[in-house]
# Entry
Amino acid sequence: MKLHQVMSFGIALALAGCFGGAQEKSGAQEHSGETGLAISAAANAGDKTDVARMRYSIDRIACVDGEKIDPLSRTVTVHLEKIMLPGGIAAFEDSPLDKGSAHPFADHFEVVPAGCYNLNATPLTESGDLSSDCAAAWAKGIKVMDGATTEVFLISQCKGTAVGAVDTTVALNRPPTILQVEYKPSKFINVGDNDVICATASDPNGDPVEFAWDHADGPICDTPLVISSERKGNDTTECVSLTPKNAGSYMFEVKVLDLLHDEEGNLISFEQWLRAHGYPNDSHDSLAFPLYVAASTGLADASSRIGLQNQP
# Structure
């Protein structure tokens, strides 16, 4: 309920709700000076708000234009009552509060000169600060008759409990698997020869994959250079080229990671995503493989020289 609706509700009840008013007392003029305001303000939010007190402001106004009045302005702060409304009180059951409901409320009775008044009820916290949960309520032009009590009922509309929802979808992901590593032409080559090594990996979920090649051990060697990549279904084959310049035993490693899209649509590895969200899990497959490089002065060169010498 918005503030202007609270105000309108307060006015309607104030103007129409004179319980035990002057019209019910034939001898109202015999009770001169016994006029009063009974102001109840109910908080429509159950008992879980920051409201502990209610500040009432009463200001006298002219009932008609040009009326001369003695100014009156009063402010009083009271604690909430210990019971709830309607609380079995017939006067409040279904009028307006539902008989089965329970509303915290504050109440204030004030003796005032007969006349017209504006009323304000402001919810406060225990420390006297304005409530952040419940709004002020007010009524304007309330008429107090001589010898009668005008009862005013207001509603301070409070915020509801903040409610949202969590919708959690959990996808199962399996890492890729390396199926094959092939050497072209061979795992054994001479210094200066070019070798092509192809690795084939398959991802069981059909994710795109990324290969990472590394020189793990052996003489100094450049990192393998990617020359081709081809995907067929869930299988991807990537080939690299390398030309070792030093003889020796080499060890290389290929790692295959499966990929997904980040919030900006970029492909990143599942491992990056997992790390970014605080998970320690891995999602990759890796394989170390050897390459043997012979010196150019090996047996093959010697055999060539022998063959030349034996020619007629």
User: Anything to note?
Assistant: The chain has two domains: 3-157, 177-298. The longest strand covers residues 248-261.
